[in-house]
Design a protein that fits this description.
The protein is an alpha/beta fold and about 210 residues long. It has five helices and nine strands. The chain has helices spanning about 35-40, 75-100, 110-120, 165-180, 195-205; strands at about 5-10, 15-20, 45-50, 55, 65, 105-110, 130-135, 150-160, 180-190. Strand 2 (about 15-20), helix 1 and strand 3 (about 45-50) form a beta-alpha-beta unit. The chain is globular and about 45 Å long.
């Protein structure tokens, strides 16, 4: 049974938005609750749900979408692809529960959650899951292969990230723009692999037009 956290229900269901938060490996839905509650103060019109990934982490605590033990550039895409059906299922579940469709859905992922959200934009022949993806300290499993149709991709990355280097975010933005996609990159000096007030402010700014 999933233990996702509903952090906010909008005061009115008319024209409601849906923000889905996806945590990193070895983490939990609770770990993104502070981010979700801050976003709630900015977006009273939104459902905000922190989603827990389905599998227990190999690290002995927390949860994961896919194992990172022995992960390489060669096997990462296969692991992400194997986890993607469950990821898509959670998106569809919450869209059904809230009555909010893809046009008003935003996926916000941190680290492994960002990898899953970014790769969901690359599914061949798939219907669009969201109008926006915010990827914090994430990366594509492999370089973008196609334009995310009608999806804005907002990359957020600390310049001191030692887990997923910022150059991967810069490469992703360049690749997306080269494909003709709507992509932005916010870089944060002094920030490592994490989320701080700068990131939260940037997310709020990117979501102003949602």
């Amino acid at each position: 049974m999933h233990t996702d956290l509903i952090l906010q229900r909008p005061a009115t269901l008319d024209n409601a938005r849906l923000l889905l938060l996806f945590h990193g490996v070895g983490s939990s839905a609770e770990d993104l609750a502070p981010l979700g509650r801050t976003l709630a103060s900015q977006r009273p019109d939104a459902w905000i749900v922190s989603v827990r990934s389905p599998d227990r982490s190999d690290f002995g605590q927390g949860w994961q979408w896919f194992s990172v033990q022995g992960v390489t550039e060669a096997n990462r895409p296969e692991r992400v692809a194997a986890a993607m059906p469950a990821f898509e299922k959670r998106i569809r579940f919450w869209q059904h529960e809230t009555g909010v469709g893809p046009l008003h859905t935003t996926l916000i992922g941190f680290s492994q959650g960002a990898i899953m959200a970014l790769e969901s934009t690359q599914l061949s022949g798939a219907s669009r899951h969201a109008a926006r993806v915010v990827a914090i300290a994430g990366r594509f499993a492999q370089p973008p292969r196609r334009v995310p149709e009608d999806v804005a991709v907002h990359l957020m990355h600390g310049e001191q990230d030692q887990v997923i280097p910022v150059r991967l975010a810069a490469d992703a933005e360049h690749a997306l723009r080269s494909l003709g996609a709507n992509a932005t990159l916010d870089r944060f000096a002094g920030l490592g692999h994490g989320i701080d007030a700068q990131v939260i402010e940037a997310i709020g700014r990117r979501l102003e037009t949602m």
